[in-house]
Amino acid sequence: MTAIDALAPARTVSVVGTGTMGQGIAQVALTAGHPVRLYDAEPGRAGAAAEAIAGRLDRLVEKGRLDAAGREAALARLHPAAELSELADSALVVEAVLEQLAVKRELFAALEKVVGDDCLLATNTSSLSVTAIGGGLRLPGRLVGLHFFNPAPLLPLVEVVSGHATDKDAATRAYATAKAWGKTPVRCADTPGFIVNRIARPFYAEALRVYEERGADPATIDAVLRECGGFRMGPFELTDLIGQDVNEAVTRSVWDAFYQDPKFTPSLAQRRLVESGRLGRKTGRGWFSYEEGAERPLPHTAPRTEPPARITVEGSLGPAAALVGMCREAGVEVTLTEEDQGTRVLLPSGGQLVLADGQTSAEFRDVVYFDLALDYRAATRIALSASEVTSWETLRQSIGLFQALGKSVSVIGDVPGMIVARTVAMLVDLAADAVAKGVASAEDVDTAMRLGVNYPLGPGEWAARLGPSWAHELLDELCARIPGGRYEPSLALYRQTYVQMKGDQPE
C-alpha cells in the first residue's frame, strides 16, 4: 500500500476568503514554505489581506520567532489574485467564505472549472455539512473539511473532516499536510458540530441550566468551573468573548441538525440575552459589563467559620479520596469505617457530607453535597449544595471543613449534580456516543477537546479517572429528577460501563 504524503512545499496553496480565518490559514501555509495565492470576490480585499499578513510577519520578526530573511522569502511567495482563474495551478484550495451552504457550493462549482482534477479542495466550515457542500461537485471525493481554530497561526488543532463522498486518499493527504504545517490534526466523520462543537455543548448548556434553575449566578458558576473543575475559562465569560449570538447560533445549528435532540436543547436565558442585544464584549455587555469602569461581579464566597474537630468517613470517597489525607494534614481527626456506603462523610452535627451524585439535599434528612474537582489538592474553590431541610450546623461545619483545607467555598442552590459533576458527566456521555458512532477515535476526541477548547482533560481521560460507572450512575439520577431525555445515558455509555464493570470482576 502506497503511503500518502503531504503536499510538497513547492506546491501552491490558495485561500479563498480573506477574513480573519482566511488570513490565518494563508499565514500557516506561507510559513510552511508554500507559494500562497489569496482570492476574495470583493475587489481589493485580497491585497489588503496580503498587507495584513505582512504586518503579522513583521511582528514575528520583532519577537524573534522569524528572521528577516524568512520574512522576505515568505512575502515573495504571497500573491493576491484578482481573478479566480489565477488559482489554476493550485494543489490545494481552502475556502473560508461566508457560512452559507449556497455560497460555498457555488464557489466550489466555479473552482472545479478552474483547477486540475488532482487539486485537493477543502472547506473551513465549522457548522455546515461537508457532504452537502460537495454534493454538487463533479468530483466530490476530493473535497475534505479542514476546520482550523481561531487564531489559526496559534492554535494547533485542525479537524480533518471526511464527508460521505470524500475519498480516503484525499482525507489522508489533507491530514498529512496539516501535520507537516506543524498542526495537530484529528480525523472526524461529517457529523453536526464535528468533534469539538458537538461534544462541547454541555460545557455551556449545563452552566446555563444551573443558572435557569436559580442554582447560582454567572460569576459563581464560572469561578467553580475554573477553580474547582480546572477549566481555563468559565462558560459565561467565554461566551461573552465568543459572542452570545455566535455561541447560540452554533448550539441551535447542532440542535437542529440532530432533529431537536433534547441533549442539545438551546437555552431560553441565552436567547433572551441575544434578543436584548447583549452579545458580550463586542457590544460592551453580555452576562457581564465591559463598559469603562464597570466592575466584574465576584463569586459568592461563604464567610469564615470553624471546621469540625473530627469527622467519620464511611467507605471509599471515590474520586474525592484525597480529602482523607488533606483533612488529617489540616488537623481534623478522621475515623475510617469498613462500611462501603459510597462517598459519605459523617459530621459531628449528625449530618452528612456527600460527593455530588445527581440527587438533591431535599431528599434526605440532613445532607450537604460537595462538587467534583479536577484535583482536590490543587482546587482553590469548592461548591456546596444544601436545601431548606439541611440544618445550619451541618452546612456550617461543611463550610468550615473545606475552608480548613484552604478552599474558598461557594454555597449554591439544591441543584442535582451541582456544576462540575453534571458538566463532566455530560461531556463523558456525548464523547462515548460520538466514539461509538464512528465520529472519531477516543484518542482524537480527547486531543480535540484539550487542544480545541483547552479542557484540562479529555472526556475519555475524565472517564478513566472517575471509574467505569460514575458518569452513568450520575446521569441516571439526573434523568430521574429532570425527565425529558436530556440526561438519559446513551447506549454507548451503558455498554461502556457494563463492559468495563464486567471486566473488573474475577472469572
Task: Note down, in words, how this protein is organized.
The two termini are about 40 Å apart. The chain has helices spanning about 20-30, 45-60, 70-75, 100-110, 130-135, 170-180, 195-200, 200-210, 220-225, 235-240, 245-255, 270-275, 320-330, 390-405, 420-435, 440-450, 460-465, 470-480, 490-505; strands spanning about 15, 35-40, 80, 90-95, 120-125, 145-150, 155-160, 185-190, 310-315, 335, 345, 350-355, 365-370, 380-385, 410. With about 500 residues, the protein is α/β, with parallel strands linked by helices. It folds into three domains: about 15-190, 3-Layer(aba) Sandwich (Rossmann fold), CATH 3.40.50; about 200-285, N-(1-d-carboxylethyl)-l-norvaline Dehydrogenase, domain 2, CATH 1.10.1040.50; about 310-410, 2-Layer Sandwich (Transcription Regulator spoIIAA), CATH 3.30.750.190. It is elongated, with a radius of gyration of 26 Å. The chain is about 40% helix and about 15% strand. The mean pLDDT is about 95. The protein has 19 helices and 15 strands. Helix 5 links the parallel strand 5 and strand 6. The relative contact order is 0.09.
CATH topology category name of the largest domain: Rossmann fold
With helices defined by DSSP (H or I, 4 residues minimum), what is the helix count? 19
Cα-based radius of gyration, to the nearest Å: 26 Å
Mean pLDDT: 95
Major sheet details: 8 strands, mixed
The level of helicity is: 40-55%
Residue runs with pLDDT of under 50 for 5 or more positions: none
Count all strands and give the number. Answer: 15
CATH architecture of the largest domain: 3-Layer(aba) Sandwich
The geometry reads as: elongated
> Going across the major beta sheet, what is the strand order?
3-2-1-4-5-6-7-8
**Top CATH class of the largest domain:** Alpha Beta
| Structural class estimated from helices and strands | alpha/beta
Corresponding CATH superfamily of the largest domain: NAD(P)-binding Rossmann-like Domain
Strand fraction equals 5-15%
Q: N-to-C terminal Cα separation, in Å? A: 42 Å
Total of domains:
3
